[in-house]
Design a protein that fits this description.
By secondary structure, this protein is of the alpha+beta class. The chain contains nine helices and ten strands. It is elongated. It is found in: Cell membrane; Membrane.
Length: 345
């Protein structure tokens, strides 16, 4: 370890000595005390600029084409078509500007490298040029921003009344899923009610909570609106479903939401990708601690008929754990007992 540090120190010292020498050379050039202004390194550096442009450009295009399928995943939601279109329009605009500016950036040092018989042109300002390169980017960026704002407003607008509600709660280091019952209304929750047997903190004194049920995976129907109600129990998390083009932060104390319409079942996506083991998933895209990498939850998209069948087969929290009904008021407890009796039939 010490040998490595000594080696780094020696390199730093040599670099400093070299830089001091170069600075002294440039100072002497400015003062006119050094007659040799142009050197061989001037042409070498100019050629290296062009070689770097060609090599890095070739690498960029090669890698982008080679890995295209890995970063351009198939779309499985209606709004995903809109967001992808906006993404590629933005990429086209910024990509063209990037290529033009960087080609000029690396070609100019070669084309206009120092020569003793060349004199630089004095060009202090150009008002028309200033107006053009201010107005054009402003108009283009305004168009991109307004288009993105309109798409985002549609996505974050209130969900349709017939949307299927799913609550996703993040905590270190997993996701918990809660569905409302037949009323499609989730019951209240309170973080002070969180226990080993009530990890969601569901308030069972609220009658709407009596038919809520948990699920080990997110099951949603194809072609029908789905509303994710998102919250966090401890630190900041982020719900990310790449194929759905869905990403929304889960913030402690500040519930968020995201609604969308799935367009492909899990089986259809498996056939499209020719991958019988494919599964949609939710991942966490906020670094929330040491176990961040393990925050995954499977999404299963099924046909509406299969969804209704699955939904009807689920058991509520209280049906799975009758002890949760202890301490409830008489009328609420009666409703809970009715549920228990129905589950035993």
């Amino acid at each position: 370890m010490y040998g490595f540090l000594i080696g780094v120190g020696v390199l730093l010292v040599l670099s400093i000595v070299w830089m001091v020498y170069r600075i002294q050379t440039l100072v002497s050039v400015v003062k006119g005390s050094d007659k040799k202004i142009a050197s061989g390194s001037n042409k070498v550096n100019a050629i290296l600029f062009v070689l770097f442009l060609l090599a890095s450009g070739a690498l960029m295009f090669w890698y982008s084409i080679k890995e295209f399928d890995n970063y351009q995943l198939p779309i499985a939601s209606e709004h995903g078509v809109v967001t992808d279109s906006l993404f590629w329009i933005t990429m086209a605009v910024t990509g063209v500007v990037f290529l033009i500016t960087h080609v000029l950036l690396f070609v100019f040092p070669y084309k206009y490298q120092y020569k003793e018989d060349r004199k630089a042109t004095f060009y202090p300002d150009n008002n028309k040029l200033e107006v053009v390169w201010t107005a054009v980017p402003a108009v283009v960026l305004a168009g991109l921003v307004i288009s993105g704002w309109m798409a985002w407003s549609d996505i974050t607008a209130p969900a349709p009344e017939n949307a299927h509600v799913v609550e996703i709660m993040g905590y270190q280091f997993a996701w918990e899923i809660r569905y409302p019952g037949k009323d499609n209304v989730l019951g209240d929750y309170d973080y002070r009610l969180i226990t080993a047997s009530n990890s969601h903190g569901v308030d069972f004194t609220d009658k709407n909570a009596l038919d809520d049920f948990p699920s080990p995976r997110v099951v949603i129907p194809k072609g029908e609106p789905v509303l994710f109600k998102i919250r966090a129990r401890d630190v900041l998390h982020s719900v990310f479903a790449p194929h759905m083009r869905l990403k929304m932060d889960a913030v402690p104390g500040m519930p968020t939401r995201f609604w969308f319409v799935p367009t492909k079942t899990t089986e259809e996506m498996r056939a499209e990708l020719n991958d019988p083991e494919f599964e949609y998933e939710i991942a966490c895209t906020e670094i929330c601690g040491r176990g961040h990498f393990g925050m995954k939850k499977v999404i299963e998209v099924v046909e509406p008929e299969a969804y209704q069948k699955w939904y009807a087969e689920q058991k509520t929290f209280i049906q799975q754990n009758p002890a949760l009904a202890e301490g409830l008021s008489a009328d609420v407890k009666e409703l809970a007992e009715i549920q228990l009796r129905e589950s035993k039939k």
